[in-house]
Amino acid sequence: MRERFVRIPGLIDTHVHLRDPGETHKEDFYTGTSAALAGGVVTVIDMPNNKEPITTFRRLEEKKELVKQKAVCDYGFYFGASEENSRHAEIEVLNRVVGLKMYLNLTHGALFVSNLDKIKEHLSSWPKNKPLLVHAEGEKVSMVLNLLKLSPRRVHFCHISLKEEIEQIKKAKEYGLPITCEATPHHLFLTEEDERVLGPFGKIHPPLRTSEDVDALWRNLDVIDIIVSDHAPHTKGEKLSSLPPPGVPGVETTLLLLLTAVSQGKLTLERVVELTSTNPTRIFNLKPAYESWIEVDIRESYLIENQNLKTKCGWSPFEGKRVTGRVRRVFLRGQKVYEDGNVLIKPGFGRKIYG
Ligand code: NCD
Ligand code: ZN
Ligand code: ZN
Hints:
This protein is of the alpha/beta class. It has helices at 29-38, 57-67, 91-94, 116-125, 139-150, 163-175, 185-189, 192-198, 211-219, 236-239, 254-263, 269-283; strands at residues 5-9, 11-16, 41-46, 74-80, 99-103, 132-135, 155-157, 179-183, 226-227, 293-303, 322-332, 335-339, 342-343. It contains twelve helices and 13 strands. β12 and β13 (342-343) form a beta hairpin. The radius of gyration is 19 Å and the shape is globular. It binds N-carbamoyl-L-aspartate (NCD) and zinc ion (2 copies). N-carbamoyl-L-aspartate (NCD) binds at residues 17, 49, 107-109, 135, 204-205, 230, 232, 246-247.
């Protein structure tokens, strides 16, 4: 039997929305990166759908300046694809971001590319060696795969949730397309049945799916390259309003749910490390973080409780769920930065990846 306390690489969560700047009433870079450490995450890559979307070099620079004194874990940014910037993603941008994010469905925020020519322009003009991520649901997944068959390039598919989607991606990989994909804990551990109970707190894009879809994700776990949180905090008040925004927080619960699945024999700890550290490092061209690791207690069993969360929004769709596994300590670049619920370093310790 494995030791109770194990050391594994810190998680690299390449899909978070930390809301800073513009919507800091939901989360800010300090609370969001603190929640990351509590979840065993040492690096986050932040999405560009800020209130003022990150679609120009100027906005990117503003964001960088605004958040750098707040970060307690390492971080990087994505650039946002718009209908206007498909030809001239300024060259200065390229070395300062981890990749380009293109929204092909409407979701939280204004970022959305619907024009087919603009989609093609982004696919051809963004450098082939740099990650290009798509938020694509259902037929938009098929559309991108068809475009890639004509003109292959690396593309990473965010939050795959449907049986048909994972099956199509599996086929496309077998066909030889250089694509990768991710799944989220909410799509792996919750179904539309849970949404009935959670109400607006289970509203998310893509939506929670049937148990058949969830089973298909688990059955095709070898097709899934990475697991990310899609940490998308909104306040309780906003969720209870007449038009609840889509999204659920998750950066501090991903690993707990995965360790619980390990304790149930659904996957191995080695596979968790691949999905949350080795593969994201490779896919997103990051430097391996040999000096960053976490210590977890893989036996402790307890309930996820809203009151113990560090996210500013103060709730989780997994509240009340029993998990097996706790993050005890986090080491970032050799330094102990988190221990038993406490962030031990000052804001600003987190470093930006690229530029
Ligand atoms: C995300 C958000 O709130 O920024 N919401 C969501 O439902 N996942 C946006 C997104 O990832 O689509
Ligand atoms: Zn999305
Ligand atoms: Zn997202």
